[in-house]
């Protein structure tokens, strides 16, 4: 903000120095060159503001997914521990995400999956969600917890 304000103050100061002879010689009537300079400066200023809003505004951070919030400083990943009930009633959005990890035998991802399995609740899962810059989940890595049977009454 400081750099932009100093840049615009420099522009207005230099334009005032350039346009002051034109204004002093023709103070009674506005001439065509003065109006064209003023119109050009206004058009440049408006175009600059629109381009800054378009390039750096919240719309540029959003992806094409519906419901994207376009967060500015979103986390790169998110860890969710889901119990058995959450898995049954859980959102299908996580299930539809692609699996991250390349091949099944990748040692780096196998180490992560082993840690996820240790953290996962019984009959549940631990899901590591990889997020885009806007905050939307783009991939998952999941580890299922130990399967425990239900107790049956005799």
Describe the protein.
With 154 residues, the chain is α+β, with helices and mostly antiparallel strands. It folds into two domains: 2-56; 77-144, no CATH class. Helices cover 50% and strands 14% of the residues. It is built from six helices and three strands; from the N terminus they run αααβαααββ. It has helices at residues 2-25, 32-56, 58-61, 84-89, 92-96, 107-119, and strands at residues 77-82, 125-131, 137-144. It has a three-stranded antiparallel beta sheet with strand order 1-2-3. A hairpin with a 5-residue loop joins β2 and β3. The longest helix is centred in the N-terminal third of the chain and has 25 residues, at 32-56. The chain is rod-shaped, with a radius of gyration of 30 Å. The N and C termini lie far apart (73 Å). The model has no long low-confidence stretch (mean pLDDT 77).
């Amino acid at each position: 903000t400081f750099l932009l304000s100093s840049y615009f103050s420099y522009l207005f100061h230099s334009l005032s120095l350039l346009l002051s002879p034109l204004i002093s010689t023709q103070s009674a009537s506005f001439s065509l060159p003065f109006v064209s300079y003023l119109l050009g400066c206004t058009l440049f200023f408006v175009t600059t503001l629109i381009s800054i809003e378009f390039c750096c505004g919240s719309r540029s951070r959003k992806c094409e997914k519906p419901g994207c919030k376009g967060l500015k400083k979103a986390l790169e990943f998110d860890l969710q521990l889901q119990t058995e009930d959450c898995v049954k009633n859980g959102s299908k959005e996580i299930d539809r995400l692609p699996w991250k990890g390349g091949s099944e035998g990748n040692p780096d991802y196998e180490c992560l999956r082993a840690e996820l399995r240790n953290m996962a609740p019984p009959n549940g899962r631990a899901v590591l969600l990889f997020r885009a810059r806007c905050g939307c989940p783009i991939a998952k890595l999941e580890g299922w917890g130990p399967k425990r049977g239900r107790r049956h009454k005799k």
